[in-house]
């Protein structure tokens, strides 16, 4: 379970990012981002498009490399200004698993093939164990009978639930969600949010970039509001949604109503 992780005693944040800076060419997209995520908690990252939320999320998994800042995830501590060793890259990658905006399933592999390819090929875990785990996870999200189906025969909501199972099958310490429902038809959003809500209740540590403010309010323990590459304001959902302190947050929330 996530709360049993070494290096994450109760009360200590599982993730501590400090002073993240990242540029794409001349575009300075992260301008000193701080983020803390307690073990077993859900942290929602909200804010206007282009404010740097996805770049922060991808940085937690090593998919982006900020030029400056420090990052601690569990026992792993990185000074982002210096190159990572191969062992550090592997550890960072293992620490979390990402659920993408578009599910990014392989079209030529079955559902089961998609879920097991990472554990089998990258993690080189025993086949019997990987298959049994994958089928149990599919069962949990109501897709056991789709194990042999191809992604194109599934609805968008089912595909995204497979995307979540694929992340869980990697046995990460935390889950990262990058706007997991934004490409779905409105009637399919609920089934994906329901799975995420269940994972949150089970005690998973989760970082969620989302425009679903209702979900953030109901499920998140903490919310960070991003604008122009910094966290302008953070707090509990009640603090942030009911009593936002900053004018930028107030304007954003008014627009989203
Ligand atoms: P958000 O998730 O808040 O919408 P992003 O982190 O996706 O914001 O993007 C922040 C800024 O960084 C945007 O201006 C975006 O165009 C830019 N950006 C993100 N990824 C890349 C990339 N791989 N190459 C160039 N620019 C990028």
TrEMBL record:
<dbReference type="InterPro" id="IPR003593">
    <property type="entry name" value="AAA+_ATPase"/>
</dbReference>
<dbReference type="InterPro" id="IPR003439">
    <property type="entry name" value="ABC_transporter-like_ATP-bd"/>
</dbReference>
<dbReference type="InterPro" id="IPR050086">
    <property type="entry name" value="MetN_ABC_transporter-like"/>
</dbReference>
<dbReference type="InterPro" id="IPR027417">
    <property type="entry name" value="P-loop_NTPase"/>
</dbReference>
<keyword id="KW-0067">ATP-binding</keyword>
<keyword id="KW-1003">Cell membrane</keyword>
<dbReference type="InterPro" id="IPR030679">
    <property type="entry name" value="ABC_ATPase_HisP-typ"/>
</dbReference>
<dbReference type="InterPro" id="IPR017871">
    <property type="entry name" value="ABC_transporter-like_CS"/>
</dbReference>
<protein>
    <submittedName>
        <fullName>Amino acid ABC transporter ATP-binding protein, PAAT family</fullName>
    </submittedName>
</protein>
<feature type="domain" description="ABC transporter">
    <location>
        <begin position="15"/>
        <end position="253"/>
    </location>
</feature>
<keyword id="KW-0813">Transport</keyword>
<dbReference type="Pfam" id="PF00005">
    <property type="entry name" value="ABC_tran"/>
</dbReference>
<dbReference type="GO" id="GO:0005886">
    <property type="term" value="C:plasma membrane"/>
</dbReference>
<dbReference type="GO" id="GO:0015424">
    <property type="term" value="F:ABC-type amino acid transporter activity"/>
</dbReference>
<keyword id="KW-0547">Nucleotide-binding</keyword>
<dbReference type="GO" id="GO:0016887">
    <property type="term" value="F:ATP hydrolysis activity"/>
</dbReference>
<keyword id="KW-0472">Membrane</keyword>
<dbReference type="GO" id="GO:0005524">
    <property type="term" value="F:ATP binding"/>
</dbReference>
């Amino acid at each position: 379970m996530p709360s049993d992780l070494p290096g994450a005693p109760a009360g200590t944040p599982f993730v501590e990012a400090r002073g993240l800076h990242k540029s794409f060419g001349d575009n300075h997209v992260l301008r000193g981002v701080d983020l803390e995520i307690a073990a077993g908690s859900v942290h929602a990252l909200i804010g206007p498009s282009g404010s740097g939320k996805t770049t922060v999320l991808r940085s937690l998994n090593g998919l982006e490399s900020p030029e400056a800042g420090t990052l601690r995830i569990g026992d792993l501590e990185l000074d982002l200004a210096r190159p990572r060793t191969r062992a550090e890259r592997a550890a960072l990658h293992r620490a979390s698993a990402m659920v993408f905006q578009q599910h990014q399933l392989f079209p030529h592999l079955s559902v089961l093939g998609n879920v097991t390819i990472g554990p089998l090929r990258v993690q080189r875990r025993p086949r019997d164990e990987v298959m049994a785990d994958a089928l149990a996870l599919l069962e949990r999200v109501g897709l056991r009978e789709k194990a042999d189906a191809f992604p194109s025969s599934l609805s968008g909501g089912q595909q995204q639930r497979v995307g979540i199972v694929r992340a869980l099958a990697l046995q990460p310490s935390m889950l990262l969600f990058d706007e997991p429902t934004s490409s779905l038809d409105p009637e399919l959003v609920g089934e994906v949010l329901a799975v995420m809500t269940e994972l949150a209740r089970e005690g998973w540590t989760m970082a969620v970039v989302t425009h679903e403010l209702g979900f953030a309010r109901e499920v998140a323990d903490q919310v960070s509001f991003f604008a122009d590459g910094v966290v302008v304001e953070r707090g509990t959902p009640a603090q942030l949604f009911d009593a936002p302190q900053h004018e930028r947050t107030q304007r954003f929330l008014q627009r989203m109503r």
